[in-house]
Structure formats: structure tokens, C-alpha cells
Specification:
By secondary structure, this protein is an alpha/beta fold. It folds into three domains: 236 residues, ANL, N-terminal domain (Rossmann fold, 3-Layer(aba) Sandwich); 73 residues, Luciferase, Domain 3 (Luciferase, domain 3, Roll), CATH 2.30.38; 110 residues, ANL, C-terminal domain (GMP Synthetase, Chain A, domain 3), CATH 3.30.300.30. Helices cover 31% and strands 24% of the residues. The chain contains 17 helices and 25 strands. Helix 5 packs parallel to helix 6 and helix 11 packs across helix 12. Bound molecules: malonyl-coenzyme A (MLC) and adenosine monophosphate. The site of adenosine monophosphate has 19 residues, from strand 13, strand 19 and strand 20.
Length: 525
């Protein structure tokens, strides 16, 4: 078994650093699931070693991708750690993705291994094998599947494969404004530097207990939450899916919670959310989407705690954070705080010139956390960096006199719904292929629960009839459910400016606001 000393020999493998954070006593409880299962640190160590040995036994080329689309489970987390240990590249995929989306990811990433749920084995293996993937395993959320069966025969001893900080650890797909998803390549060094900064900035301390209620196929749940707890050797209360009543029930046993704004909105609906329930809590973190000031204030009123809002993205992990330590400043609602130590952040005008505080412009960043580029898209990567090496986030904001960043919008055409990103171009592409459709525009409008939701505005071809319900049903049959607009309307023409560009702001004004709620009921489901 690996010891603290062995992990500090200079191996830049992220797992070595995470492993060094495990407590001395490996029999302590590492994870408690919502089904009451308890996993010790030894269990996590052994399971990830066995899975790493299984992956190693496949004799895969360096930098092979391990694509994983499975329900959240402790074993799925162990598979992530195993991939790091084996020096391979983890490629997590949202469980909502359907075959068209999976087909693209598998063709683009060319994974050597695909792991899917037992229920999806039929169609996923067909896609994977026909794309040339040599291995497809299954992993259920109830400790079943061929992956664990095969790993059961493997040794539970494993030394993390040496990796340099610049070596690839994970690829996270983010949809693109052109509709084509891009794989953001993150290195061991990107992830570890960010995890260490957050560990210190958020003051992780002995005895902290994290409620982990986010999915583990995106940055927030997989890296920000998980790495913090592992680096700190902190127990996790592991919720397979977000259940607000369960989270409130577990609050008295925890000290840290992380969520997207929708989670806070839903928690506020719980009567049992009181200062008494949150008495042992030390930190509530929000991010991935804008937190409304109403939610920030209401949370303070209901629990006595001030949410810490931070900002990041798949390409950069975390960039800014409101202070945790009050001596560094207050947590300001409506802002995403200060650049994290080591992150250089600037706001620039259209010519790329840095703007003084208070002025609104494009947010650009540089730092050890910034990704290596988009998978097999050198041109796209080059376009997203300035000549002096700053990454263009596509977010628009301003920095105040004290250095706090406020995000005021996005230059990228993106809808963030319940913390998931939806790129209108992708949805429009599908709608435009439907029979009778001349063109379409998908816009985001305010929503009390998801923050923002999509509306599809469709123009029919001359003499053609397009039914909104049919459009939504077709999208639902093809795309991940969270991408399906909550409403569809058919109009005669899309508003355009003098350059012929669709005026999405006009559509947002027309179809957003109060009328939305009742029509949403009418057209949803
Ligand atoms: C679910 N639905 C959504 C949705 N989630 N619709 C829009 N946006 C979403 N986010 C829809 C489904 O399509 C379904 O519709 C219905 O809601 C119920 O589905 P569900 O699966 O039961 O939903 P639920 O479990 O309630 O999920 C809601 C949620 C989930 C908020 C818990 O979306 C979630 O976990 N969000 C967190 C996303 C996250 O981790 N983001 C981090 C990205 S990292 P129908 O019609 O099919 O019934 C990142 C970087 C950073 O951004 O800075 O962190
Ligand atoms: P993703 O590509 O899924 O990682 O999403 C990253 C995007 O989420 C960022 O570019 C921002 O637009 C948005 N985002 C993340 N955190 C916040 C936040 N706290 N406030 C507003 N937007 C955020």
C-alpha cells in the first residue's frame, strides 16, 4: 500500500497528491451514502487500486481515454481515481446524453474504454465497437456490472503511474457556439494546482464533512467538491442525486455544502431549513451559474450563513472566489469575488486592451489552472487565446475598486439552465432539420427554478405546418433532456437587425417575463 512518503517522491500524478490527503487511519469513514453504506478510506484506496490494475492489464497506449457514462456511485468515483492512478485520461459524460450525443463524443475522443450502465450496454456498446473502441464495460449504481466483476480478480496494491504536471488527466466536453462540442484537456497540474488553492482559500480543516449532492460528470461535483474532500481527508455524505429534504436532514452532520443556484432555490423551499439545522455548517459554496441576490439574501435570513459564490469553467476549473476568511474581505452577493491566488484576470475591450476598474468588458484569464487546449482542435484553441497567452472566457464583467468581479453577461451564445450549459446553436441545428422548419432561434429566459430555460422560436417553411409539441417531442427523443427547450412557439419571421443577424434580445423580451410561467405549464410535458 502507498504511504505518505511514497506519494511525495515527486510524482506529478494528481492521484498521488489526493492519496497523501487520506487520513493516517485508513479505517476511518470516507464516504457515507444516502442508502446508509459506509466506505472507509481503505475501501476507496483498494477499490481504486483494483480498478487501476484492471485498466493497466488492458495494456493501453499512453493517454488512452476512458469514457464513462454511469450513474453516480462511490464505485464511479473510484473509477475516476483509478483512471488517474493508471495514468490514463478520464472522460466523464452526462448521463442524460442520448445516442446522437454519445456517438459524437465516442467518434471524437476515440476512447480505448467505454464504461456505461448495464441498462445502456446494448446501444452504447454498439456505438463504441463500431467506432473502434476495444473495451466496453458496465457499471451499475448498485455495485453490479462487468467492470467490478473483472476488477475483483485484480490486486489491491498499486503505485500511481508517474505523470508530469503537464500530462493529460481528463477531457471535459463543453458544447461550442458553432454547435460542435469541444473537449477541454485538463492536465494533472491544472487540477492539482486549483485543488490546492481552493483547499487553502476555503480553509478546509480537520473534521470538515462535505455533503456531496452534485453529479460527478462536471467540474463542480467531480473536481471542486471531490478534490477538496479528498485532499483534506474529509468524510463525504454522498447523495446519489440531489434531494433537498435529504440534504436538509443531513446538514447537522456536515460543515460544507456545494451547489449550483437551483439547489439553493430548492433548499429554500424546505421548511426544515433553519439556523438550527445549519448550526455546524461552516461553508456554503455556490457556482456554475449566476446566484440571484434574492437567493443570497434569503439564504442569509433563513440560515444565518452567507453563501460564498465563486466562478469557474470547464476550461479553467476555478477562477475567482469570494473570501472565506473574513480578514480578506466580505462575501459580496451579486459578485463572484476576487481572482484566486495564482490566477491573473483582466477585463478587456474589443481591441483586447485592459480596462480600468468599473468598466465592462470581456473577461480573460491566465494561470496554472488554465487548460492545455481543445482536443484535436488546435485552430479553435489558438482562437481562444490572446497573443500574450490569456484565455478568452466568453464571459463579460467588470472588476470593482476592491478587485471583486461581477459577471454581467456572456459574449458566447449560451444558456445556463440549472447549472447545465445549453448551446442554442446545437439545438437550432436539430430543429432546422425537422420537417417543415425554415429556421429557428433558441433563447434563454428567466426561470425561478433553473435560473434560465430555453425557448425555441420556430419559423415554418411556406405552406408547411409546424406543431410546437412535435418539435419538442422530436428534440426530447434525440437530445439530453435538460437541453430540450421548455417551450416552443411558431412565428411568421425572426426579428433581424440591419446586418441580417437574428435579434435574440428581442425574442427574449417578447417571450420571457411573466407570461412565461403559464405558457410553460401549457406546453411542457
Ligand atoms: C433536469 N431538467 C432540467 C435540468 N435538470 N431542465 C433544465 N435544466 C436542468 N439543469 C429537467 C429534465 O429534463 C426533466 O424534464 C425534469 O427537469 C426533471 O428531471 P430530473 O432529472 O428529475 O431533474 P432533477 O433531478 O430535479 O435535476 C435538477 C438538478 C440537476 C438541478 C438537480 O439539473 C443538477 O444536478 N444540476 C447541476 C448541474 C451541475 O453540476 N453543473 C455544474 C457544471 S460545472 P422532463 O421533461 O424530461 O421530465 C460548471 C463549471 C463551474 O459549470 O463553474 O462549476
Ligand atoms: P462550463 O463550461 O459548464 O464549465 O460552464 C462555465 C460557465 O459557467 C462560465 O463561463 C460562466 O458563464 C458560468 N459560470 C460559472 N460560475 C458562475 C457564476 N458564479 N456566476 C455566473 N456564471 C457562472
Amino acid at each position: 500500500m502507498q504511504t505518505r512518503d511514497q506519494t511525495s517522491l515527486g510524482n506529478g500524478n494528481l492521484f498521488a497528491a489526493l492519496r497523501a490527503g487520506f487520513p493516517q487511519d485508513l479505517d476511518e469513514i470516507a464516504v457515507e451514502t444516502n442508502q446508509g453504506l459506509l466506505y472507509s478510506w481503505r475501501d476507496i484506496d483498494r477499490a481504486s487500486a483494483m480498478l487501476a490494475n484492471l485498466l493497466a492489464s488492458l495494456d493501453l497506449p499512453t493517454h488512452s481515454r476512458i469514457a464513462v457514462q454511469v450513474e453516480k456511485s462511490v464505485e464511479a468515483m473510484a473509477l475516476y481515481l483509478a483512471t488517474l492512478r493508471a495514468g490514463l485520461v478520464f472522460l466523464p459524460l452526462n448521463t442524460a446524453y442520448q445516442s446522437a450525443e454519445m456517438s459524437y463524443f465516442i467518434a471524437d475522443a476515440e476512447p480505448a474504454v467505454v464504461v456505461c450502465t448495464p441498462g445502456n450496454f446494448g446501444w452504447v456498446s454498439q456505438l463504441a465497437f463500431s467506432a473502434g473502441t476495444p473495451y466496453v464495460f458496465t457499471l451499475g449504481d448498485d455495485r453490479t456490472g462487468s467492470l467490478l466483476d473483472r476488477a475483483a480478480a485484480c490486486s489491491d496494491q498499486q503505485q500511481a503511474v508517474p505523470r508530469d504536471p503537464g500530462d493529460l488527466a481528463a477531457i471535459l466536453y463543453t458544447s461550442g457556439t458553432t454547435g460542435r462540442s469541444k473537449g477541454a484537456m485538463l492536465s494533472h497540474g491544472n487540477l492539482l494546482s486549483n485543488a490546492r488553492v481552493l483547499h487553502s482559500y476555503w480553509g478546509w480543516r480537520r473534521g470538515d464533512v462535505l455533503i456531496h449532492a452534485l453529479p460527478i460528470f462536471h467540474v463542480h461535483g467531480l473536481f471542486v467538491a471531490l478534490h477538496g474532500a479528498l485532499l483534506n481527508g474529509s468524510r463525504m455524505i454522498w447523495c446519489a442525486r440531489f434531494d433537498p429534504a435529504l440534504v436538509v436532514q443531513k446538514l447537522p452532520q456536515a460543515s460544507i455544502f456545494m451547489g449550483v443556484p437551483t439547489l439553493y432555490v430548492r433548499l429554500l423551499e424546505q421548511e426544515a431549513l433553519t439556523p438550527e439545522a445549519a448550526r455546524h455548517m461552516r461553508l456554503f459554496v455556490s457556482g456554475s451559474a449566476p446566484l440571484l441576490i434574492e437567493t443570497f439574501n434569503e439564504w442569509q435570513r433563513r440560515t444565518g450563513h452567507t453563501i460564498l459564490e465563486r466562478y469557474g469553467m470547464s476550461e479553467t476549473v476555478m477562477l475567482t472566489s469570494n473570501p472565506c476568511d473574513p480578514s480578506l474581505g466580505p462575501r459580496r452577493g451579486g459578485t463572484v469575488g476576487l481572482p484566486l491566488p495564482g490566477v491573473n484576470l483582466r477585463v478587456v475591450n474589443d481591441q483586447g486592451q485592459a480596462l480600468p476598474s468599473g468598466e465592462i468588458g470581456a473577461i480573460e484569464v491566465k494561470g496554472p489552472n488554465v487548460f492545455k487546449g481543445y482536443w484535436r482542435m488546435p485552430q479553435k484553441t489558438a482562437e481562444e487565446f490572446s497573443a500574450d497567452g490569456y484565455f478568452r472566457t466568453g464571459d463579460v464583467g467588470r472588476v470593482d475598486e476592491e478587485g471583486y468581479l461581477t459577471i454581467v453577461g456572456r459574449s458566447k451564445d449560451l444558456i445556463i439552465s440549472g447549472g447545465y450549459n445549453v448551446y442554442p446553436a446545437e439545438i437550432e441545428g436539430y430543429i432546422n432539420e425537422l420537417e417543415g422548419v425554415a429556421e429557428s432561434a433558441v433563447v434563454g429566459v428567466a426561470d425561478a427554478d433553473f435560473g434560465e430555460v430555453g425557448i425555441a422560436v420556430v419559423v415554418a417553411k411556406a405552406r408547411a405546418q409546424v406543431e410546437p409539441r412535435t418539435v419538442l417531442a422530436s428534440l426530447k427523443a434525440t437530445l439530453a433532456n435538460f437541453k430540450v427547450p421548455k417551450r416552443c412557439v411558431v412565428v411568421d419571421a425572426l426579428p433581424r437587425n440591419s446586418m441580417g443577424k437574428v435579434q435574440k434580445n428581442v425574442l427574449r423580451e417578447r417571450f420571457g417575463a411573466a407570461q412565461f410561467v403559464s405558457r410553460y405549464q401549457e406546453h411542457s410535458g
